[in-house]
Amino acid sequence: MQSSAQFLQPPASPLPPKQIQGTATTTKTLSIPNQCCKFSRRELAIGTNSSLILLLGSQAIEPLNLSRARADELTDSPDKIEPEEPSRKVDYCSDQNVTKRAFLEVSVDGEPIGRIIIGLYGDKAPVGSTRFSKLVSGAAGVSYRRKEFARIMPNYVQHGGLRSFGVDAELAKNTGRTMEIDSLVDEWEKQSEGCQGTKNVARSVSIIVRDPSKPPPKMKLVARKGKLEIDQEELGKDVNGTEFTIAVKDSPDLDASALVIGRVLDGMDVVERIGQVKTVKENTSSPYFRVAKLIGDKRAVVAERGFNRPYSKVIITNCGLMD
């Protein structure tokens, strides 16, 4: 309260007591300021609040003026620094030279919906594109003909490929072809190192080389012929390098499991039509499913395999090479 009263007093400093005792005139003159400086508690409170507002206002305005001044200096300066544009990632896999063209004719529940034309990257993915072209043309003894699309995801559609057992495996074996995917994995690793950004961009066609639901392979210690060796965990046990995907939208979640071998040149409307087929609803968020999978209930594993599967039969009725 005392500091507030001192702040509100007139700027003229009062005379010393000795001068006040000099004459009556001086005493009358000084009685006026004494009367002016008598404030009630309410007036002192209002004055104190006003002083604080003035002080805070001046402190807030000062940095604002400084920032405006700095902005004016940057604007007027001839050597002003332009804001840097964000660096753009190069889509190494999305713009490649097409060496071969293949086609897939698709039907939904027996009704033809059109043809998909695919350009294969024979230069950058020779192993993957060769395998795909042999399966499309039937040169491997087996073909994608009459095989179904197994999963329909929001960003991509996935073909079920060939079976590693039964008729498909026997036909492949008779032509000297195996289901091993070692070369595909090597090519996938090269592509993972060479590609920048998302590899499975929209329109990309890829071969699955490992199970996307499993974690990446790790190094482990194994015993061979009585010696301990460091080796990588087995890859491709559940996949055989014949399943492929077509990306409807950019699908970075596929980069950890799929090798990009080409892109759709024509027929994306057919791919989008496949993506609109109704599927089994995914239920992984259910607490019952989580508990069942946690305790290793086989019913949860079977149910998970059925998630995102189409209710309708989406089949490749015909396929082959165009060049």
From TrEMBL:
Transmembrane stretches, start-end: none
SUPFAM superfamilies linked: Cyclophilin-like
Region (Disordered): 1-21
InterPro entries, per the entry: Cyclophilin-like_dom_sf, Cyclophilin-type_PPIase_dom, CYP26-2-like
GO molecular function: peptidyl-prolyl cis-trans isomerase activity
Domain PPIase cyclophilin-type positions: 103-321
Protein name, UniProt field: Peptidyl-prolyl cis-trans isomerase CYP26-2, chloroplastic-like
Organism, scientific name: Nicotiana tabacum
Species classification: Eukaryota, Viridiplantae, Streptophyta, Embryophyta, Tracheophyta
